[in-house]
Amino acid sequence: MNPGPRAAKPPHFDVDRLIDDRRIRIVVTCGSGGVGKTTTAAAIALRAAERGRKAVVLTIDPARRLAQSMGLSELDNTPRAVKGVDGESGGGLDAMMLDMKRTFDEVVEEHTTPERAKQILANPFYQALSSSFAGTQEYMAMEKLGQLRARSDWDLIVVDTPPARSALDFLDAPERLGSFLDGRLIRLLGGTARAGGRTYLKLLHAGFSVVTSALTKILGGELLKDVSTFVNALDAMFGGFRERAEQTYALLKRPETAFIVVAAPEHDALREASYFVDRLGRDAMPLAGLVLNRVHASDAAGIGAEQAVAAAERLESSGEHALTAALLRLHADRLKLATRDERIGERFSTAHPEVPVTLIPALAGDVHDLDGLRQIGALFDAR
Questions:
Q1: 123 Cα distance to chain centroid
Q2: Which pLDDT score is estimated for 217?
Q3: Using one digit for the tens of pLDDT, what is the confidence trace for 361-381?
């Protein structure tokens, strides 16, 4: 059976060249779950640090793997120095994990008076909003990235996003935030709260009796009061919230930012990778390339898969050399996996011929420490 013409080889994604480029200040990795995205982000940050960059890696993924691989007992909202990094070249590495609520608290404390901040932080609706409200994590990721970029401590920020399509939800944060703040209910609650006293109650019951009756049944009268009080307290901060989110969004579109899509040679993972590539292109975000992890390599100098299977069958029929026959079958299986990986990768490159790709071979085990991250980093330079 004729397999058909081979796809053109995609351009090579030179990760070392990217991280050596001092104009690049932000690298954002995105990809579906289970493809090694967190490990890739950590390896990029470590390699950059040991090539002279002052790097910090920020994970938005709640997985603890990043802390373990860097020898840290935990990660939190404060950047922590990673020990054991070869700093002879002048580089260094810090690591942190986004704490959504703590970041929100910091915003409140920084952008309002101590008295107003105390009032906001104690508000029950704020406590719920800052911990679990839909979209809060994405906005706080934008806020934290903006904070890190404003500091002069690092010349490279590596962002490890959550798995699956939510990885790019933070790109929608400014728009979602604007919709929330401009929403009719928020304007109603803020306006009626500012009216105060009996006028407040009169407006609620006269103009919006049906709405408030339903809300009171759902939320409870006390919570409704907490919401309106919260909106009133935050009113002066709303403009700053949106402005900073929009500034960070604009920063992500600048040439100093590079997005890296991470995938594995699996149909679902590369389908997600295609989604990321298309989404980044639609939003005019600077895509650097694709890191294709866990690729099985073929041994061009060895015997082919069919030859290995035939030789194994001959040995098995003779009843001798069982170990050799087993090794031949293992070799054949690996070659079949390599062929499958190559074909799946070719499908992606056929659909996205302009996207540079670097292949990371499948390793014998998982990465658990800095040496493992260094091994991954060294493979970035392999062709």
A1: 31
A2: 47
A3: 988 777 888 999 999 999 987
What's the rounded Cα separation, in Å, for the pair 130 and 303?
Answer: 60
Q: 199: pLDDT confidence band, cut at 50, 70 and 90?
A: very low
Q: Tell me how far apart the alpha carbons of residues 183 and 194 are, in angstroms, rounded to a whole number.
A: 17
Q: What are the distances in angstroms from CA 30 to CA 39, 124, 143, 168, 279?
A: 12, 34, 18, 8, 12
Question: Is residue 262 a contact partner of residue 291, using CB atoms and an 8 Å limit?
Answer: yes
91 phi, psi to nearest 5 deg:
-85, 175
Sorted by sequence, the CB contacts under 8 Å of residue 323 that are 6+ apart come out as: none
Exposure of 341 in the CB half-sphere (CA atoms within 13 A): 20
Q: Which CATH architecture has domain 25-296+362-379?
A: 3-Layer(aba) Sandwich (3.40)
- pTM for the whole thing? 0.80
Written as one letter, the residue type at 178 is G
pLDDT, one tens digit per residue, over 327-359 is 776 766 677 777 788 889 999 999 999 999 999
Single-letter amino acid code for the residue at 261: V
Return the structure tokens found at 161: 């996003």
Which structure tokens are listed for 202? 């009169």
Cβ-Cβ contacts under 8 Å for 114 (sequence gap 6 or more): none
On whether the CB atoms of residues 50 and 85 are closer than 8 A, the answer is yes
Q: Where are the alpha helices (DSSP H) in the chain?
A: 15-20, 37-50, 65-69, 100-110, 114-122, 124-132, 136-150, 173-182, 184-195, 197-207, 209-219, 221-234, 238-252, 267-282, 305-318, 322-351, 370-379
Judge contact between 92 and 128, C-beta under 8 A: no
